[in-house]
Amino acid sequence: MRNLQDTTTLHNGVKMPWFGLGVYKVQEGEEALQSVKAAIKAGYRSIDTAALYQNEESVGQAIRESGVPREELFITTKVWNTDQRNDSVLEAFEISLKKLGLDYVDLYLVHWPVKEKYKQTWKVLEKLYKEGRIRAIGVSNFKIHQLEDLMSVAEVKPMVNQVELHPLLAQPELRNYCKKQGIQIEAWAPLGQGRMLEHPVINEIASKYNTSTAQVILRWDLQNEIVTIPKSVKESRIIENADIFDFALSAEDIEKINALNENKRFGADPDNFTF
């Protein structure tokens, strides 16, 4: 991994950037437009949005205004839970595509494992994938038992599982399972929603490499073969977050960070959510 354009190859042969921009809670309009444009200008090629975020239109506008050819970008969006419950997955996809102003998306995810619904939802994603309207399909917030349940009926294995993942929730068992299954793990909230930035162990390591704590954590992701999508709306921070290709953490420092795991979630538990 030498630069922002470096990719991992998903099990269907599609190349996905290791590093991207997340836009959760980024306001539709100027904030989302400018942050996505700043990221693409800085060399980012992967942008992760969702129907829930209500900023797909601004993401699409930024893509069109970026000057970068569509085929060089990797755009992810997700189907929200209400559309799973209402059996309106296909309609939700069409709405997302229209808002983005795109002919296809690179990755479409089942946002949460809604009980009694996610297998049905997956069948719609498989259909869209087979039609070539999505280059890769995957899931978000799935635990091992949910992945196994899904794959018991799946014709196409998920290519990606995007989950909350940071040094306090390192998810080693899930990562190992996904690796064995050929499912690429991806981290949302890689910085623990900002809570990891003042951690004393991370601070100590950052001082050693003369980097920021965020850069240490994001480098830890990459060296653990975790796709990562930090969020920021500030151009300077967007650039700084991605400036992690000129150093490498030692095996000893990787282990120090690994040892911080407490299985601590800041987001909802995929086995127990009410939205």
UniProtKB/TrEMBL annotation:
Q: Enumerate the UniProt keywords alphabetically.
A: NADP, Oxidoreductase
Among the GO molecular function terms of this UniProt record, one is: oxidoreductase activity, acting on the CH-OH group of donors, NAD or NADP as acceptor
Asked if the record carries the keyword tRNA-binding, the reply is no
| Residues at the active site | 53
Which residue windows are transmembrane per the record? none
Q: Where is this site: Lowers pKa of active site Tyr?
A: 78
Q: Which InterPro entries match?
A: AKR, AKR5G, Aldo/ket_reductase_CS, NAD(P)_OxRdtase_dom_sf, NADP_OxRdtase_dom
Q: Where does substrate bind?
A: 111
Query: Could you confirm whether the keyword Cell cycle appears in this record?
Result: no
NADP-dependent oxidoreductase domain location: 27-262
- PANTHER family according to UniProt: 2,5-DIKETO-D-GLUCONIC ACID REDUCTASE, NADP-DEPENDENT OXIDOREDUCTASE DOMAIN-CONTAINING PROTEIN
Q: Which family does it belong to?
A: Belongs to the aldo/keto reductase family.
**Name of the protein:** Aldo/keto reductase family oxidoreductase
* Natural source organism: Neobacillus massiliamazoniensis
